[in-house]
Amino acid sequence: MSEIIPCPKCGSEYTYPMGALMVCPECAHEWNPEEVIEEEIALVVKDSNGNVLQDGDAVVVIKNLPVKGAPSPIKAGTKVKNIRLVEGDHNIDCKIDGFGNMALKSEFVKKA
């Protein structure tokens, strides 16, 4: 029996193969599992110094970052633990004490 690959769109585990493609019955998404593996490998995020970041790393904010709706910015030198890398403009998801869940740009952090 082949390995079950969860849907990259909705995360469903009820996927099934159809020829060379995988199909999700819950969201009707079809994809090539070989391309998904290549896309996951292609995500490389670097900090302000050019160091490659990985999920679970700790980083330090290098400049004050204003936050909409917050009375004070995230101060330079704030250490953020256990980051998660995502695709997009703000490519780091994390939780910052006093601010909650945040999305940061990798160009404003350095690896701790």
TrEMBL record:
It comes from the Bacteria. InterPro entries: YjdM, YjdM_C, YjdM_N. Gene3D superfamilies: 2.20.25.10, SH3 Domains (2.30.30.40). Residues 6-32 form the Protein YjdM N-terminal domain. Residues 45-112 form the Protein YjdM C-terminal domain. Pfam families: YjdM, Zn_Ribbon_YjdM. Belongs to the YjdM family. This is Alkylphosphonate utilization protein. SUPFAM superfamilies: Prokaryotic SH3-related domain (SSF82057), Zinc beta-ribbon (SSF57783).
